[in-house]
User: Fold MarR family transcriptional regulator from Streptomyces fulvorobeus.
Amino acid sequence: MTESEGGAGFELPLLLFAGFRSIIDELHRELTAHGHPDVRPAYGFALQAVGQHGASAGEVGRRLGVSKQAAGKTVERLEALGYVERVDDPQDGRRKLVRLTSRGTEVLLRSAQGFDRIRAGWVEALGAERVAGIEAGLRAMAPANAFRLDAAGWFTG
Assistant:
């Protein structure tokens, strides 16, 4: 591969990961500054898996692609940090439902706002057309189911 065609094949995934990592690290610096120092990247996936309507620990595990036990440990940690709570399921009194607390909802809202600010910084640095081109290219190359919550587990599994 010549320089005019770009770098070596292995560079593309490394650059994509480095871009992803820089965004996540910047977001987590912002979250820390706004009172969420204990939030880890994997917790964002878990909070998304809980969702606005709540979910059982088993459902959280299935959405994340991890065992019920692993999901249970993550839920316990999020509960200890005040991001989720376990309540009786109004549809089935035999099971518990994991629900976002106001703190959990706030961290997801701050995350969304942070991602918007970070993207705006990329637009400022690279230009709107270039960022839109990057996004369009990635959408074209990514599989239809690219936005899966089990991405965090993929790195460790």
